[in-house]
User: Fold these one by one.
Assistant:
Number 1:
Amino acid sequence: MIDAFDEFLNYITTVGPLKLLRIFWFFVYFEFARFFVFELAVVVVWKLREPARKILYSNARRRLFIERPLVSIIVPGKNEGLHIYKLANSLKEQTYSNFEFIVIDDGSDDDTERICKSLQKNGFIDLFLRNDVRGGKASAANLGYRFSKGKIIVHLDADCSYDNDAIEKIIIPFYLDDNVGAVGGNILVRNYRENLCTTLQAIEYSDTISVGRITSSALGIYRVVSGAFGAFTREALDRVGGWDIGPGLDGDITVKLRKLKYRIVFEPEAICQTSVPNSFKKLIKQRLRWDKSIIRFRVRKHRDVFYPNETFSFSNFISSAENITYNLLLNIKWWVYLFDMAINYTSLLKFIFPFNILLYTANNFLKFIIFSLFRNRKNAPVIYFIPYLPCMVIYFGFYLRFVRTVAYIQEFFFKRSYKDVWNPQKSSAHAKELGI
Amino acid sequence: METTAIKSKFEFNDNVLSFFNKSFYYLESFSTLKIDTLNKYDAIILDARDVEFARIILKKFRSHSNIEFYLKPIFLINTKTNNDPLLKELVDGTIISFDQIPETINDINQISIKTAQLESSNSNSFEVQLFKKVLNYMFTRETNTFTPHPDINSSIGYCFPTISVNFETFEEAKVLDLLEWAEKENLIWPDFLDRVYLCSNCKNGHLSYREICPNCDSANMRSEDLVHHFPCGYIGAISDFRNNVDTVLNCPKCSKNLRHIGVDYDKPSIINHCQNCNEVFQDYLVKAKCAHCKTDTDVQFLLSKNINVYKLTKKGRTAAVGGISASDFTLSDEIFGTVNLKTFATMMHYEQERIKTNPTLSANIVIIYIENIFDLYRKIGKSKERELLAEFVNIVRDGITPADFICINNPSILSVCINDVALNDAQLRVMKITDKLEELVYNNFEGFALNVFTQTVQLSKEQSFDKQLHVLIKEIVEKG
């Protein structure tokens, strides 16, 4: 063991920088440069502009409270009755109170209807709508939006809970810039202590999702207003006709709004807490669904963002290109890298593999600790997550990459998203036929 | 009716028919009605050509507080087919012509024999008094079941003829209260038949159920199907899909025509629009408006009452002859300032001993009999009965000295002992009390005229108090 380690150290120290770059190109060019150096640069600039932003933010808040527009909070879902009471209670605590709370029951077959009717009767819910026949999340959201009255529509997931100023925070950006069509909230993992699976997801959410969204928002290429916590202007929703059939409807509607030249922003201070899948098996299901949507929506449905037509926008081009490149193409490249190493550096694999792990782990520590300085709100002290960071290499570098690869193959070659039980077949069949 | 034909077989004189030693009164219209004199006839032949007339007469008899009236055998003649439960259950038979009168003799005798077996009881509450009366009727008619009948005239939609006849149709719910009381006393046992919902304010069952807007309570609303267009996920009211040109449904989001329900669209639910306040909702409220008191009540707050078929228990059958000993009734315990009969008798015994010691001392017994008090109780219900009695006792108390004492014999009879005043003075005080009692009821119960009879006598030193009291009550009741 010691001999092997000596041999490894000896190899690292004797090989030249160019050779190292040749062997670890994937990490250096993509992982480190894009996901650390670049993001850090953007976040630093974003942080430096914070004082100026605070003044604008304060003015926007004042405008909001002078106008006090009606906000419609819509919560579509199936069999979510048990979560609704908690959600209703957390909404009662909101600092912004001029809202109507609309729950849409998408054909639940449990006690949801009874619970929600009781909550409506007791004043916790303003409007309860139910489809006796399940129509899918998009149709449920559209039903809520159709009968809502607010100037701003906030889409929530029933199993999430919200900071008591979350609604206020998520609608302030509409008063920062009149062209903002949608705002995405910041999602933290509530059950991060439950097990290894949830803890790793919590690290991923705070690192990749949260910081990643701050970066993309700052660059104007923010591409997914999360369904768990997203706000839209009625005007914007009217123009796109609400949500289209999912899975991946939140990313889809964001692209649709972007095409109409609306600004889409991320609001890191609008905090929502969600419970993430608590087993790796459940997580696979969720991520297969998420990852398929890149092929279905970015590559197929919204490929026109790459065409130089009258709706062409450079930021939309970059937004989709970046998404496709860093998720789809790099994933393919990662396999290319593996083959490259296996074929060209077969004898060095025993050095390359551990060194890669070392590099990624070091990078993960560096990123997590440095980026945590930019996060105002954390689920737990940074120290809590430190012991779990070494696992991120396996989780992110292998587990999620593998799931992503499977999802891409399934969707690219077999269009499996149209068969996902998440959406009823009656809708998916039409979507497949129409290529949407 | 051909009176000549009748004359040939029976003695027929001024609506009175005699047959053997039985006399029948033929009641055919209000002009022949002399109800106060009818107790002397053995039976009534009631002409039912006018159903409403027959119904009124039957109610007058069966609701009467005098046993000679409410147990009177009544036979209908000239009946048309009708579904009136009162006319069906509260008569002793139907005859087609006077020729059938001999056939009624056996029934009349049977009723007479049964009536003779009834023991008079000193009933002491409205429930006991009324239920005993009903039991008497059932005993003489050899029936032991209270069967509810759907009845449009009844305020709860059902009537129990033998009991309901004692109440106005709009206060039918009191029949249910009485039955509940009797069930609690183990006099009857229930067998579920139906359930009715009554106004929570006035216990009336004539309710108008309306679907109303949960926001403004207006019934002016419009319902529409919700339509879900599968391809684009749009969902909205069907009017969103309509156009002004043709009948084709077009999706407002993707403009496609809707062609085939279940294939490219479905109707997963409905939506209601309030035309009054523009509220949108799926579940309307259902409220019931009472036709009697106009109260609008959420259906969940309506009074739910079981309608049962009741049968007499063994205790009930015994009570029909011997009287009811109700478990929950001690009015004197409930009403402050009164003593019960046993204590009153003991005190009067001491009073007798006291006046024996000194010839200058005297004591007077006063009996206050409110003859039509049960008519009033029927109107105001059980809970008010106690309150009213307490008011009566207050009035009596105000008219006597603190050393005098009052006993509630039963809700219609109060006994009072007035000490150490001359008989004339005592009578004067009682007159004032009577005026106040009548005034109280007249002013508070829509001009209801209370019939108050009083008897004031000096307490005898020699005769036992119990005997004196018994004679006094008998005299006053007969007077009433």
Number 2:
Amino acid sequence: MGDLNETKKKRGIGHLDSPKMPFDYFKREYGTVPRDTKRAPFQWVSEVAYKNVHRIVSRGYDTTELMEEGYGVVDVLFVDYQSRIPLIEEEQMLNYVMILALEDGLSAPAAMSRIVARTKTFLTQAAAASILAFGHAYGAYSAFGNRLERYLKRADTQKMSLADAAARLVQENAKEYESLGVSGLMLKDPAAKRMIARAEKLGVSGKYIAFMKEIVQAAQKQSPEPVDIDMLGATGAVMMDLGFSAEATWAILAVTRALAAGAHYIEEIERHPYMRLGEALTPKADYDGPADRPVPALKDRAKVARSGVCKTVEEWSQAREERKKLVGSGYAIVEEIEDPSKKSGIKKVGKL
Amino acid sequence: MNREPVFKRKTAISYKTEEKTVVRGYDLSELAEEGYSFCDALFVLYQGRIPTEAEEKMLKYEMGVFLEHSMSPSAVAAIGVSAGRPNLPCAIAAAVSTFGGVHGPGAAHGYMLNKYLERAHRDGKTPEEMAKVLVDEYMDAEKPVMGMGQPQHVDSDPRAEPIHVKQEDLELEGVYLRFQRALEQHFHERRKREGRSRVGVNVVGSGNTALMEIGFSPMAGWCLGSVCRGWSCAAHALFNMKKGRAWGASRNEPMVQMIDLSMIKYVGPEDRVVPKQAERQEYARKQKEEGEYKKWAI
């Protein structure tokens, strides 16, 4: 492809021959990268499951044989996520948790499923959309569970009592109220407390439930409002005592809810017509943005346009504050997106 | 605290107050307290009834055997999405979204059975007679018969026949199993007559038959199957997120990664010069007239 590069160099391409370029663009090769024969070829590496023509095997157990031996769908969750057969009581407890997680009325996942349904899609798209509604507030199992782990570790390494660790957790995470597991949401509904009681009755409660109870007490002391354990606190703590990681809990309960999102998809289609492009209106009464204004003539652009470029930090700071006032611009939101990558990789496999 | 519903709708599925969550009239917490299983709750949700013990066992079996399938389009999607390290639900949603017209087409199989059973009812035919009509009509039209054949389990899907047998053992044989068994028999006979290899029933053919037999609609059955796969796909995504390398392209791994540059095989148009704007109109006109581009258009 040297000729093609030469032709292109003679013709020139925009700014690609600029001396500011840290490389010679016209010496860059064409064509795909040859196969790497020094390393093992790519394979789908899994610790979870494999299959061949005749079998599907999860963590060493043939899944058909599991069913034939009388295990069921809930047992397979223990096999897939924890590589073990659960105790009968653990299986009973997970059934209990999943029943409670199945339906939550017209909350975000059901609404997502129904909105997607109205655009005329497959059911699977709507169910998948409901899973996307399990963010760090509605489905805060990851934030909740990992925090429990962190503070339990602190209690251990700093020789702190569970009560002290719980008090610190509540104090230091008050702003993260949506993932504390304690709130005013379940003051009249006994379901969360019943779940904890069931875990204790079945003998499957452990350090997470014990810690959660301390967190509830600490929150009740620190909060000016009445609070108690909520469904996040109960299901999160129970799931972790059943041995599921915070992330596994998040996944299992999001999918559980999606099984009911399918019913919402069906009902939406049965009871309501599909929604076409341009059909839904947004009443002006709901609008509180800038007042209606004339579009300037294109020839007047230079007169009316204001540059967004800030030349100094001071200018930038002022502009940023001003921009925060425009709702929907995104300036009022500050997030830190963490990279959870594990740098280790899977070194034990793939060597030639 | 705003506790208004996210979406205002009349619904016959559930309601939720400060005191309880009620599905089809049953308080969910009471269902759990009474010792019903999660599968029982799915009957309540989709059918508004408490199932028999045998029906509950059948659902538990079907979902259990369907949950994990190692590397299928759904698991591959979950792993692919997880490579960018988004929130975990994105990987699960992608996995569930792969269930369409080919991967786990439970609803399509159910609609096919219902359509021909309706014809049997209308024309006064037995399920066995109508199953033969179905097989002949599909095969004459060279359309795949839903529920038959699996691209990986070419020598009979390891889940499929055991599901049929389980359904019979639980004495849950009804019109659907009768129809499906007859369909399979005619399908095998016809392929044999035509000198073609045996293609076994797949997990949709047998699993969906069982689900419909125990009262689930084609759509509900599809949901149960495809969504429950999300559990295992999440496990595959988590394994890769916790133990694998992000991006899937590192050159430091001993094994070539999923999207290593060397994995790309390009079979498109040859490398070419980008026309300058001054040349554009003439270039584009010529390109359109010559029509070579149509070979590549998708």
